Model the fold of this input.
Amino acid sequence: MTHPLSKYKPIADAITVLFHPTAEVVIHNIKTDSIFYISNPVSGRKIGDISLLELDGHEFGQGFEHELKENEFVIGPYEKAGEKGQRVRAITAVLKDEADIPMGLMCINQDFSTFEGALDILDGFLRPPKSVQHPEILFQNDWRDQIKLEIRSFLESHDITLEKLTLDIRKKMVAHLDSKGLFFAKKSIDQLATILGVSRATAYNDLSYVRKMKNQSKGL
Done:
């Protein structure tokens, strides 16, 4: 029997073909908290990966809708960070079954990093639609996205790019991420190493160093 979410696959493919190569479309299965389908997977995610939405529950149909505003079944647009911390604008559509109960999410992610130079020039003339605050309902459990967003925020506050990170500033960034409690997940260090373009061992050494300095400052 064909899964109800399968009917949305052609829509996902059509969007990525139209906006190729900068768009990625992900269909999440809320019931299984996993990726049901992904078109143009530039993020490196794949079908079956955990979504980290954790929206399902014993009374999911009621609980999730109560967290949304009335008739709010399109969430966004909002900004998030790509695999390298680049600017990504996204929008999410809530997909419902025949009983009018949410069964999935279609997330359209558009990488704007290649256009940032032009956007900066045009910013004074044409401003993009106002983005809503980062939706907690979608990302409260996604440590991967939280790490990328914090890295992006750190880079912007220090007016620096990943490519120009010095060892000292890199360790300050690791300390900042650690202060946010973002290294609780098993593969969080792997994610950090990938973004920074360093080895897993280097990322672990940086984290060990900043924690050692923190303990010394506390006299531990």
Q: What stands out?
A: Helices lie at 9-18, 60-67, 116-122, 136-139, 143-157, 167-179, 188-196, 200-217. The chain has two domains: 1-139, 142-220. Strands lie at 23-29, 34-39, 74-81, 87-96, 102-111. The first strand starts at residue 23 and ends at 29.
